[in-house]
């Protein structure tokens, strides 16, 4: 077997739990964290900002022997960085959109789903670069190790993506390329990663985080590694929002069986213990193209769907189905009342609804469909 250097980012406890219908209680998260750590992965990602209970679990795990491998997925904002640091982690994964579509949609001075003229687009891009660099510098000043997750990188302008990688390089350990809506195919992936490595002079380790909307996440990830990617982000069992992610056990065993490549420090026997645990608990990924794979809960995604259906919805046919629970944001309720019911509410009501449903979801350990939510809210 040939030993290759590859950093493994596990997202089971974050992205995996974002799959509608999956809920990890405190005991399950602790069990999974222990089992996943035994596989030898280099990072276990969690998101303390989701809820106070999540922050408590992260603090608990950081006090144990997982401190060095825990990574807090963190939104841009000094308060978010401080909150992650307060949980005791040493590494954060800062994330921000890099595609023009999402940048224009979320830019506070623009906020439109269509691409503007180049002069305006340049201003939008420069505001994003300045904002991210400022927060990278701040996180570094707090003594944190930083990885940057480039949301929707697969739909980003190539030259701008190269600029992002080069500008962020002094502050980060990995630049994670995200195929957020699963649009890549294997041939394009290999060429894309290879070209990015060439145009950035291989200075910054590139990692990949690919979604499985079209059933290609595994092969896309394999091709990215063949092209020179230095890290892989995924989940055990491939669980995750919509149709899930690249399954880490399949990536690791696939590299070993197909190419004779083995990652030092990975306990291949322990991979099965994680997948067996998930199977025993009834946690499995949604099949691509299934009705369940068109369900959305994460607030930031629903927020974009409010203004631009194509921001997170890949297919021409069908409609996204919004569910409500632990990962919902105020925008989820804005979507419900404004886009679905045509009953606009004051912004403070959306925040009130968010807190109520989040707490109910944690209490009942599940997510709710639209009918259930309207009953809870008295509509």
Could you list some keywords that capture this structure?
single chain, 379 residues, alpha/beta, TIM Barrel, 2 domains, two-stranded parallel sheet, 46% helix, globular
How would you describe what is shown here?
The protein has 379 residues and is of the alpha/beta class. It contains 14 helices and twelve strands. It has helices at 26-38, 52-63, 78-86, 100-106, 118-141, 158-168, 186-199, 217-227, 248-259, 268-281, 299-307, 330-340, 347-364, 370-377; strands at 2-3, 7-10, 43-46, 70-74, 91-97, 145-151, 174-179, 206-210, 231-234, 261-262, 295-296, 321-322. Strands 2-3-4-5-6-7-8-9 form an eight-stranded parallel β-barrel, surrounded by six helices. Strands 1-10 form a two-stranded parallel ribbon. Helix 7 (186-199) packs parallel to helix 8 and helix 8 crosses helix 9 (248-259). It is globular, with a radius of gyration of 20 Å.
- Superfamily (CATH H level) name of the largest domain: Aldolase class I
Structural class: alpha/beta
Number of helices: 14
**What is the average per-residue confidence, as pLDDT, rounded to a whole number?**
95
Query: Alpha-carbon distance between the termini?
Result: 62 Å
Instruction: Give the overall shape.
Output: globular
Query: Which bin fits the share of residues in helices?
Result: 40-55%
Low-confidence stretches: none
Strand content: 5-15%
CATH class of the largest domain: Alpha Beta
In total, how many beta strands?
Answer: 12
Adjacency order of strands in the biggest sheet: 2-3-4-5-6-7-8-9
Q: How would you sum up the major sheet?
A: 8 strands, parallel, barrel
Radius of gyration: 20 Å
In CATH terms, what is the fold-level topology of the largest domain? TIM Barrel
Q: Total domains, how many? A: 2
CATH 2nd-level architecture of the largest domain:
Alpha-Beta Barrel
Sketch the topology as an H/E string, one letter per element. EEHEHEHEHHEHEHEHEHEHEHEHHH
């Amino acid at each position: 077997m040939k030993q290759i250097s590859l950093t493994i980012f596990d997202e089971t406890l974050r992205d995996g739990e974002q799959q509608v219908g999956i809920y990890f209680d405190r005991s399950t998260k602790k069990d999974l964290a222990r089992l996943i750590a035994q596989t030898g992965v280099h990072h276990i990602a969690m998101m303390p900002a989701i809820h106070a209970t999540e922050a408590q679990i992260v603090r608990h795990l950081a006090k144990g022997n997982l401190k060095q491998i825990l990574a807090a997925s963190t939104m841009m904002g000094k308060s978010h960085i401080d909150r992650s640091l307060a949980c005791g982690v040493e590494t954060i994964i800062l994330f921000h959109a890099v595609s023009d579509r999402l940048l224009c949609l979320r830019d506070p001075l623009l906020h439109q789903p269509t691409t503007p003229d180049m002069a305006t687009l340049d201003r939008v891009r420069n505001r994003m670069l300045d904002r991210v660099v400022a927060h990278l510098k701040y996180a570094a000043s707090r003594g944190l190790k930083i990885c940057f997750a480039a949301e929707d990188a697969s739909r980003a302008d190539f030259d701008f993506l190269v600029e992002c990688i080069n500008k962020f390089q002094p502050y980060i350990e990995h630049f994670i390329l995200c195929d957020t809506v699963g649009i890549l195919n294997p041939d394009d992936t290999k060429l894309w990663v290879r070209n990015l490595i060439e145009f950035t002079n291989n200075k910054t380790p590139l990692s990949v985080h690919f979604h499985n909307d079209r059933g290609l996440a595994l092969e896309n990830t394999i091709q990215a590694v063949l092209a020179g990617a230095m890290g892989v982000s995924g989940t055990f069992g491939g669980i995750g929002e919509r149709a899930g992610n690249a399954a880490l056990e399949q990536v690791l065993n696939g590299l070993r069986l197909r190419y004779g490549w083995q990652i030092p420090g990975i306990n291949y026997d322990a991979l099965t213990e994680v997948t067996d645990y998930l199977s025993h608990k009834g946690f499995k990924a949604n099949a691509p193209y299934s009705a369940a794979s068109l369900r959305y809960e994460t607030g930031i995604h629903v927020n974009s769907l409010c203004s631009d259906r194509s921001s997170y919805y890949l297919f021409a046919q069908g409609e996204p189905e919004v569910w409500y629970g632990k990962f919902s944001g105020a925008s989820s309720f804005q979507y419900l009342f404004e886009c679905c019911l045509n009953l606009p509410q004051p912004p403070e009501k959306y925040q009130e609804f968010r807190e109520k449903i989040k707490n109910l979801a944690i209490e009942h350990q599940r997510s709710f469909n639209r009918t259930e939510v309207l009953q809870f809210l008295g509509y």
